[in-house]
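Give me the fold.
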Amino acid sequence: MTTKISYSIALLVGLGMIFLGARFFFSPEVATAGYGIHFNAGGDYSFHHIKGIRDIFSGILLCAFVLLDERRAVGVTLLTGSIISFTDMLIVLSKSYNGVVQATPHIVATILLIVFGVLLLATKPQKKAL
């Protein structure tokens, strides 16, 4: 049961990453504001596309591990991915115009990634019936 819930959360996180990455391509200003920073690109969205493709890749990788039933790979990916959301939180909080409200999505993501990553790594694999 724990594995199914963790897989469901991981799949939602992966799909969310794909969505967020795509938003950096199709609506870069909205994506940047949603991230929690103000950034005047002056019409050059190279940075947004770089961030977007990394998010899309991470989301696809996570979804692939879930669909391939690679429990340990999903757990490791979630746990190590918490570094990204934690760093994002620090970046958002480093801006004088932001507070905890703007950092909340990053805080929640960090907690979810750590909790479900640890759960997947601590859960023993279920033996499959022949």
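The helical segments are 2-26, 28-35, 46-67, 71-93, 100-122.
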